[in-house]
Design a protein that fits this description.
By secondary structure, this protein is α/β, with parallel strands linked by helices. Among the domains are: 211 residues, Rossmann fold (3-Layer(aba) Sandwich), CATH 3.40.50.1700; 115 residues, Sandwich (Immunoglobulin-like). 33% of the residues lie in helices and 17% in strands. It has 23 helices and 27 strands. Strands 2-3-4-5-6-9 form a 6-stranded parallel sheet. The chain has a 6-stranded mixed sheet with strand order 11-16-15-14-12-13, with helices on both faces. Helix 6 runs antiparallel to helix 16. The radius of gyration is 27 Å and the shape is globular. The two termini are 37 Å apart. Bound molecules: beta-D-glucopyranose. Beta-D-glucopyranose binds next to loops. Beta-D-glucopyranose (BGC) binds next to loops.
């Protein structure tokens, strides 16, 4: 029986392999034949990716972009938000160019298309890969219904510096968690068949190390050892490649002194040769010409650098278009390189099915019926509520029915800000504010009263910088005191105060670096006045980055971090505040006590002089004026119930070779309501040929427990989980002692020891 089964299995494997080879051969044949008819100019045209700005109004045919398309000088266009316009431009390209090659339409579909999900940092706080994947699936299905075939997501830059505004776009400080998210997102967008009309090509970005920009200042220099790159910063990009991501975007920053856009080692050696990436590489927005400002040479030189590095598509720069022929004539690039780049773009178009039907993704009916649907919005609301992190709760939340709630703060009624940064496809006029969500949810079972309480910032210019791209928060011209007085008057008869404070949507995201990550003074003043009333206050914190919250942690009875939760934010927050949903998010980035602690991350090295005594200890690695502890550690988040962790049980304490270790722990819900808990497994490799982090996440499991229920959670550790890149960049594990840690966050863990020999 077993034999027959094995035989059948082999036959199936061979048949599938054969079908794939035939499919690949057909594709290759098609693209080769097509390219044999193309001129050099037409090939270079395929490498050109302009932005869509110039036919916002009027007809395509009279636009600047149309002229280029007609001349065969465009391979794709990005950020057009209309199926009609995309269809019109696609028709124009197919009908008016000599080769009739369809265009590729891309967009920054970062955390949803029209139905917006939490910002990625919030999504990562769900620690729920099925929800992450589902959000990407919905995003792909909506975007593809509107003509989009390619998204510039996921962003998996490892981030340890909350001053950097783009931490909002990523998954935080941990490579293991971010790798899992990368995989889920790529699969969510691409599915199993790129030619299906509801899947799109994913583009992992920004390759590489962009999150390590010095001082947290955007676009700034990065510089790190290869050991750190390979062990800490590279894995999430590699995970996306292993998951079959179709494209990769190179970053703005330099690596080893060479900008990523022209870094042959990075693109050709690591990405293509070591990781076997077979898709296409796109530059970031004018990333290629910016190499001139980096000091890498004139336009021709930097474009040749990019081509030699292995970049296939030039976003906005137009330098491939304008300099490549000259570089070829001068022997600085080869025709073979240009051919290869062109082939990769055409293969992507082939995989999308565009040569079968250029209008595959231009289905007005789908656009009208499958975008921003009630079902998608309901899923977004559900997912959003899972991203909230309860940072503190002194019996304020959930708010019982029948109460009068005073909702106060500049973010309580700020529709435009709910979707957060990078929500290009959103219609913010449709977003649900907290005022609306809470008022609807309370209904007649209580009362919601509202006052704005303060501006986002005292200084109008500071506020402008954080509320761009239509994310306005109307400024109130009353004095700060007048606004506070109104808030106090409104709160006077309330049972509980909900303070909706924090950052504006554009306080984070691209080019939104900050040197002060406190809640702005105007709002802090308000918060202090509210707390001084002695009434229970819950701070609902809107933020695109970790915020310094020392005073708040000390003095505000409850803090719920809601990030920017998307188009359904208000309803989802109301669900959590009223206890319809029990918060279960966990931080994916440490919250520092102050900016002086940055970079602060849980998986740091021990140093030769770790703090062993009490802070402060002379001649040990610590600060005079602040302890080494974060305010809230990686993995942290509370619940309306409590969980009790049993002792760690191991299948063995002494292991050898390729054995597997089973780690088991019982988790009990000791409270009175159901709740979800993210059980986290960390290891420490105590001795290594290079120094190893004090802790590394190696597993997590989100479970749901009814009140009083106990569940047994198991993890499996294999030698594969112990591997790291040594000083020769060899990926292997080393025998010796390991600590195994399990707990509800990176700080409050139980620890046991094992030995693992070769
Ligand atoms: C950003 C990318 C983005 C691109 C296209 C750049 O400025 O760095 O993340 O995908 O613009 O909008």
């Amino acid at each position: 029986m077993k034999r027959i089964f094995l035989l059948l299995l082999t036959v199936v494997i061979i048949a599938v392999g054969f079908a794939q080879t035939t499919k690949d051969a057909k594709k290759h044949q098609f693209v080769t034949t097509l390219m044999s008819k193309m001129t050099l100019d037409e090939k270079l045209g395929q490498l050109n990716l302009p932005a869509s700005s110039d036919f916002v109004t009027g007809s395509v045919s009279s636009s600047d972009i149309a002229d280029k398309v007609k001349a065969g000088k465009v391979g794709g266009v990005f950020n057009i938000r209309s199926v009609t316009k995309i269809k019109e431009l696609q028709q124009f390209a197919v009908n008016n160019t000599r080769m009739h090659i369809p265009l590729l339409f891309g967009m920054d579909v970062i955390h949803g298309y029209r139905t917006i999900f939490p910002i990625p940092l919030g999504m990562s706080a769900t620690w729920d890969m099925s929800l992450v994947e589902r959000s990407a699936q919905i995003a792909a299905s909506e975007a593809s219904a509107d003509g989009i075939q390619w998204t510039f997501s996921p962003m998996v830059d490892l981030t340890r510096d909350p001053r950097w505004g783009r931490v909002s776009e990523g998954n935080g400080e941990d490579a293991f968690l971010s790798s899992a998210i990368a995989k889920a997102m790529v699969h969510g967008y691409q599915g199993d068949d790129l030619s299906a009309p509801n899947t799109i090509i994913s583009c992992v970005k920004h390759y590489a190390l962009y999150g390590a920009a010095e001082g947290g200042r955007d676009y700034n220099t990065t510089d790190m050892s290869r050991v750190r790159m390979y062990n800490e910063y590279f894995p999430p990009y590699k995970a996306a490649v292993d998951a079959g991501v179709g494209s990769v975007m190179v970053s703005f920053n330099e690596i080893d002194g060479v900008p990523a856009s022209g870094n042959k080692w990075l693109v050709d050696d690591v990405l293509r040769k070591q990781w076997k990436f077979g898709g296409f590489v796109v530059s970031d927005y004018t990333g290629i010409p910016e190499m001139s400002s980096h000091g890498m040479g004139d336009a021709q030189t930097v474009n040749a650098l990019a081509m030699n590095a292995g970049v296939d598509m030039d976003m906005v720069g137009e330098g491939f278009l304008n300099t490549m022929k000259k570089s070829m004539a001068e022997g600085k690039v080869t025709l073979a390189q240009i051919n290869k780049a062109c082939e990769r773009i055409l293969v992507a178009k082939y995989d999308l099915g565009l040569f079968d039907d250029p209008y595959r993704y231009c289905n007005e009916k789908r656009s009208a019926t499958e975008v921003f649907t009630a079902a998608n919005r309901a899923e977004s609301r559900k997912i959003a509520a899972q991203s909230f992190v309860l940072l503190k709760n002194n019996n304020v939340l959930p708010i019982a029915t029948g109460k009068t709630i005073a909702l106060v703060g500049p973010l309580a009624n700020a529709k435009e800000n709910m979707t957060g940064t990078w929500s290009v496809g959103a219609d913010n006029s449709q977003s649900v504010t907290l005022l609306k969500g809470l008022t609807d949810a309370v209904g007649t079972n209580g009362k919601v009263v509202y006052a704005k309480g303060s501006n986002l910032e005292d200084d109008a210019e500071m506020q402008n910088r954080q509320t761009m791209f239509g994310k306005d928060i109307t400024r109130d011209n009353r004095t700060a005191q007048q606004m506070i007085d109104e808030a106090l008057a409104v709160s006077a008869n309330a049972d509980v105060i909900v303070a909706a404070l924090g950052e504006g949507a554009e306080s984070s995201g691209e080019c939104a670096s900050k040197s002060n990550i406190d809640i702005p003074e105007a709002q802090k003043r308000l918060l202090k006045a509210l707390v001084a009333t002695g009434k229970p206050v819950a701070l609902v914190l809107f933020n695109g980055r970790p915020i310094t919250l020392n005073w708040e942690k000390e003095n505000v009875p409850a803090i719920l971090d809601v990030w920017f939760a998307g188009s359904e934010a208000g309803d989802a927050i109301a669900d959590a505040l009223l206890g319809k949903v029990n918060p279960s998010g966990k931080l994916s980035m440490s919250f520092p006590q102050n900016v002086g602690q940055i970079p602060i991350y849980y998986n740091h090295k021990n140093t030769g002089r770790p703090l062993t005594g009490k802070w402060f200890s002379k001649f040990q690695s610590n600060y005079i004026d602040v302890s080494n502890e974060p305010l809230y550690p990686f993995g942290y988040g509370l619940s309306y119930t409590q969980f009790e962790y049993g002792d760690i049980q191991l299948s063995a304490k002494e292991l050898k070779g390729n054995q597997k270790l089973k780690v088991t722990v019982n988790v009990k819900n000791t409270g009175s309501v159901a709740g979800k808990e993210v059980v986290q497994l960390y290891i420490r490799d105590v001795v290594g040929s290079i120094t190893r982090p004090v802790q590394e996440l190696k597993g997590f499991n989100k479970i749901e427990l009814a009140a009083g229920e106990t569940k047994t959670v198991s993890f499996e550790i294999t030698p594969e989980s112990l591997k790291f890149y040594n000083t020769n960049l060899k990926y292997d594990w080393e025998a010796g002692e390991f600590q195994i840690m399990v707990g509800p966050n990176s700080r409050d863990v139980k620890t046991v020891k094992i030995n693992w020999n070769k």
